[in-house]
Automatic annotation (TrEMBL), chains A, B:
Annotated protein name in UniProt: Acetate--CoA ligase family protein
Organism (species): Billgrantia antri
Keyword check for Ribosomal protein: no
UniProt entry keywords in alphabetical sequence: ATP-binding, Ligase, Nucleotide-binding
Lineage of producing organism: Bacteria, Pseudomonadati, Pseudomonadota, Gammaproteobacteria, Oceanospirillales
SUPFAM superfamilies tied to this protein: Glutathione synthetase ATP-binding domain-like, NAD(P)-binding Rossmann-fold domains, Succinyl-CoA synthetase domains
Domain CoA-binding positions: 17-112
A molecular function (GO) term: ligase activity
Length: 731, 731
């Protein structure tokens, strides 16, 4: 049993479809301007190993291959059909495919859901046929498919290098651009490509699972305009990233981009910030620039090893060492602190004016002796404080810049670097300003699979991906997801009652839910009568109190005049209660008012918001941010898919830009970080345990050095039918 | 008189030094590993037009050229000496140069101030000789100099393309990397290069002025680790950017980078954020990634035209149109809103499924007809809402991807784009995924000087630089700097008194300074006696009052218990006064206490900070930010060099990330923006008029819809002697 099967119990049906023994090309043509011609040429030129069945009622022979008048007429049973005909013909053809035993179809035509209501109807019709006849659909509106290791090339793309990068891209131009980049400046080739198009049947999660299982793919690379089932995708990504790197570029980081994407593949936008957070939580390397996709995939794919974020820089130019230091720090990486032993060894081989503090600047020591750079790399590789090694400067060009006689020494240096890369588990990344020239020493490193870049920024981007992946793999093992909570029957009844009454939870019910699962919620009492009011005064003693209306009909309590703060003594409480009731009745004379909630005022501290939403794409998501303008104006919010691990909870606090406020700014003491992490975890577990909970909003929670106070809690109840827990876990 | 001379009255002495009729190479050598050999080779190979005088006591002939035993022995008087000998020999050689009439020297040796105290002493010694003998110094610790249009190449760098990009770089590797990039992937070449090294004599401002005046330079490009005289540099930059683009990469954006830079060229760090703000204020195009330096310089240099920020995108791929839209929005550019007329014209030439909303997606219309892309560009170029045009996709590769027969049409398209680029004042920028292949159509555009990039991100970076430069040139004309204030004699006396007493201004004096120049400062009274207290009560009536201690010795009034708020009635005021005095005496029993300041409480609003600092590198700088954690934790602060223009003041408010708080968030009304702009301008003019003002801190100023209230004002008085205004303006 291979490790992949260990993680993913069933095998993707795509293996059969993407490595077919035969293919029907429906709409095959002898006209060179037609897609049905190009596909034929691609299949023949690339030496497709299976049978090719051109389908065209008007031709006997296409490109020298016998053509068939219809799918039904094909003598064999190919697993795959490529359909090159216009949109309107597709539903009928899918049915024909199914009747002939064809398992999968690639639909090139556009004119479906991405064009509006009429197209969406046609897409539904097509899917009805596909489901009725058991045909899996790639597309529609796809740029095509290739599987180079099977010599299946339905794109008629010339000169694509075969290799181990798998690509799923909703942009055909993106594939083309990556292919050209790889061919001219890259070090990798491709295994499988699929354009998911509108994903009306097979979606990103299925494709990713396939790439995870595919033995020819060492890194999965995705250009995504929109996920269909984001939650499923995250689950698959979690499994796949444990085995191999996954690189995702998600478009729609701005409103302008979201609008453009929706007219391209009809993709649902969703929040970009949330998407990025959730993908990273699942171990995905998210890249933000399209020109970083290939370098990052290349670096992760070539190296297949990743440790932490402490980088040792070896440089032969002080200016570029400075640039590298800036970029590393900005990327959240650190300059490894070299041990005294390491520095001593460096001093022994370098000129006295060299800097042996990281970034190491050889300051001329290597001008006549470039292989010394490899020696320096060996020295820092032996240092336990170092996770990865970054060579910056002229290497490869010494024999060009200084003297041809240096070529031998430079090649010896390259050989030593190759040896080092085999001996160490620390990744080596090289920036050389001679990269565009491809001199012999760089060619040697290139052959050996050491990633080489032509820009410091690209190199650092790769180092960041390596560092993050290294950390992720370690932390994943250290921190499994927190175990699920056992839902309590009496709370289930609370939800059932609210659902029956068509309302959300009352604040005190919401707080009871939290309290029952170990979240500290300040004491409070529902006061419905003078007697209860007197009891509340007796219970809370001298402390100043807060009072809030209790009504299922009043959502915005402050607006209704339903909140009074800092009340002291029974008389004041009574007056406040009367004013609240009067004001709320004036606000909404139909509102059913149960009474008021009385609780001691919270201690001063930092206000934060903890929320749960059910995202239409990603399902239950925990949200955390500082209160007020931080969330609303600065959008300084972190998201994690529920359920969280302890590391997830901690990292979402660390991610907040204003985290220094939590650590204790301006002379204030820091807040109790562990209590906050525990709170986030428990909220995650509650949301996981009660599917009846649709949304939750703790706003604000007041944090201080001694813990926290949940000042306000809202729970929105799911109105739709809910699958029982048993059904869920069986699914 | 050329326009350059119109701006800069005197001509830089560098013209003579960098275009010498002869050059002495001190330390010239026949040993190929020596710098003194390489320089000779470079001069000879590049065909230097003047006389070459190798100086070496041990040789008669170097590389076939007669050598001289000493500088004194040289028969002619070269303007320039290249000194290749070790640091210790330099002071003596400089003196010799001066005695022989040599005007300038390039000092390659390192081992000066960048290495510590001993080196700094040697540098001072060298400068003493240089000043005594009238020799201008480039370096020391410089990588060298070239002036390709004069065939002066002291770097022995092969294959550097001659062109119109001038480069000043404190990193030799950076020059080399730009040269290689230009040679292999670029469209430009170089005019002059100087490595300023330690800038012990000639600094960045001098070099920039030279490039501004140099007729062979169309764009000045600088890699800077540190400025020596930042204020002078800003002045020169302001003049030069009015004539030609200036591109600056400033290293040290992080602490790690600042540390690395200081061990490289001994550069003073300074605040990166401030440096960027001030450079941009002077019209400089600041780039943050080192791999964006050449693309931006290239785009600005090639096009020499720049308008605003409204970009029209023409694309043949929906995915890449989406990526372009995201990047443009993130860069602060906008997708131009195409007029109905433009959209109609596009509809007439494109397929029905094409999107004629910007980004224009031709959706297959050009597959058999690539020149249609040029037609689309012509159509959008005619739209008044469009400032620049961005072509995204496969252009240049249609004949490769689809059919060779398309080559003719593709070339016609290129020709039409060349014609358009000549006819319109709107810049055209092209991203093609075929850029690495350099196909014929792209070569044609290349020859015509239309910038072509291999990444969407790089293209957008160039479009941003173009948009910002266009806006800058327009706004500069529209908004000159605000005229200086006339300082008032009585306020001059206030400063003189404070200086004589060795103290800063009292708060009421600081407020008087503001008030006298038209800044609205709430009424307040200094209370020294019970009688004055009664007068204050009478003057302010029923309003709640604030009270603060007045003492030159107590800086942190709150810490000393010297502030009380919300006081009502004479009894409360009296009690508060007594408590403040007691508390302040307990805090510092030596403190001289003048009394207390009484003022009405400020209305609620948004707290901001307005400050003036005298930066050691850049001189007087205005600072603006929101109060509290915004400044201290989020570092959300804007800086401008004083004096400001009205546009400067407005843009610094717009730059703040939390500006939405000012515009009125969470149901609050927005603040009075014009009053704020006026306040910033007046503070700038006050700081400009009173050189005795060393620092100013208005913290907080409370802004609301009706104006603002300066709640606290501190003015730090300059302790050092001050040049009089007359002297200043004469200098």
């Amino acid at each position: 049993m291979n490790p992949i099967e260990g993680h993913l119990p069933t095998r993707s049906p795509l293996h059969e479809i993407l490595a077919p023994s035969g293919i029907a090309v429906v709409g095959a043509s002898s006209d060179p301007t037609k897609r049905g011609y190009k596909a034929m040429v691609g299949l023949i030129k690339d030496g497709f190993r299976g049978a090719i069945y051109p389908v065209n009622p008007k031709a006997d022979l296409i490109l020298g291959i016998e053509a068939w008048p219809s799918i039904a007429a094909i003598p064999g049973t190919p697993e795959l059909a490529l359909i090159c005909t216009p949109a309107a013909s597709v539903p009928g053809l899918i049915a024909e495919c199914g009747r002939h035993g064809i398992k999968g179809a690639v639909i090139l035509a556009s004119g479906f859901a991405e064009t509006g209501a009429e197209g969406a109807e046609l897409e539904r019709e097509m899917m009805a046929q596909a489901e009725a006849h058991g045909v899996r659909v790639i597309g529609p509106n796809t740029s095509g498919v290739f599987n180079l290791h099977h010599r299946l090339n339905l794109l008629a793309l010339d000169n694509v290098k075969s290799g181990d990068v798998g690509i799923i891209s909703q942009s055909g131009n993106m594939l083309l651009s990556l292919a050209l980049e790889a061919q001219y400046n890259g070090q990798v080739g491709f295994s499988t490509y699929v354009g998911p198009g509108n994903q009306s049947d097979i979606g990103f999660n299925d494709y990713l699972r396939y790439l995870g299982e595919d033995e020819h793919t060492r890194v999965a690379t995705l250009y995504v305009e929109g996920f269909r089932d984001g939650r499923k995708f995250l689950e698959v990504a979690r499994d796949v990233t444990a085995m191999k790197p996954v690189v995702v570029y998600k478009s729609g980081s701005t409103e302008a981009g979201q609008k453009a994407a929706s007219s391209h593949t009809g993709a649902l936008a969703g929040s970009y910030a949330m998407t990025v957070d959730l993908l990273r939580q699942a171990g995905v390397s998210v890249v933000h620039r399209s020109d970083e996709i290939l370098p990052v995939a290349e670096g992760l794919g070539l190296l297949q090893k990743a440790r932490g974020k402490r980088v040792a820089v070896i440089s032969d130019g002080g200016g570029q060492a400075t640039i590298a230091s800036d970029r590393l720090a900005e990327a959240g990486l650190t300059l490894a602190e070299l041990s005294e032993e390491t520095r001593q060894k460096l001093r022994e081989v370098l000129f006295p004016q060299a800097s042996t503090v990281n970034p190491v600047d050889v300051a001329g020591s290597t001008d006549a002796n470039p292989s010394l750079l490899a020696t320096c790399m060996e020295i820092v590789a032996a240092d336990d404080n170092v996770d990865s090694i970054f060579l910056v400067g002229m290497f490869g060009g010494y024999s060009i810049r200084f003297a041809e006689s240096l070529l031998g020494d430079e090649m010896r240096g390259a050989e030593a670097m190759v040896d080092l890369s085999k001996a160490t588990d620390k990744p080596l990344v090289i920036y050389s300003l001679y990269t565009p020239i491809k001199p012999p020493a760089l060619r040697r490193l290139h052959e050996a699979g050491i990633p080489i870049y032509s820009s410091i920024e690209q190199s650092v981007r790769v180092l960041r991906a390596l560092g993050e992946r290294g950390d992720y793999l370690q932390l994943c093992e250290q921190y499994p997801r927190e175990p699920a909570l056992e839902p309590k029957p009496e709370l289930g009844e609370t939800f059932a009652r609210a659902r029956a009454e068509g309302r959300d939870l009352f604040e005190y019910e919401a707080k009871q839910l939290l309290r029952e699962h170990g979240i500290e919620v300040p004491q409070e009492r529902v006061v419905r009568s003078d007697a209860e009011l007197a009891e509340a005064v007796a219970a809370f003693g001298e402390a100043p109190l807060a009072m809030k209306v209790v009504s299922k009909d009043i959502l915005h309590k402050s607006d209704a005049g339903g909140v009074k703060l800092n009340l002291m003594g029974e008389a004041a409480l009574r007056r406040a209660r009367d004013e609240i009731l009067a004001s709320c009745r004036a606000y909404d004379d139909q509102a059913e008012i149960e009474g008021v909630l009385v609780a001691p005022m919270a201690k001063k501290g930092v206000e934060v918001i903890v929320g749960v939403i059910r995202d239409p794409i990603f399902g239950p998501v925990l949200m955390f941010g500082l209160g007020g303008i931080f969330v609303e104006i600065l959008e300084d919010v972190a998201f994690r898919s529920i359920p969280l691990s302890r590391h997830d909870a901690r990292s979402m606090v660390e991610q907040i830009k204003a985290r220094k406020v939590l650590e204790g700014a301006r002379g204030e003491p820091g807040i109790d970080m562990e209590a906050l992490v525990e709170l986030l975890l428990t909220v995650s577990r509650i949301a996981d345990a009660y599917p009846e909970l649709s949304e939750l909003d703790l706003n604000p929670v007041i944090l201080n050095a001694d813990g926290y106070a949940v000042v306000d809690a809202r729970v929105i109840v799911e109105r739709e039918p809910i699958a029982s827990h048993d059904e869920e876990s069986a699914a």
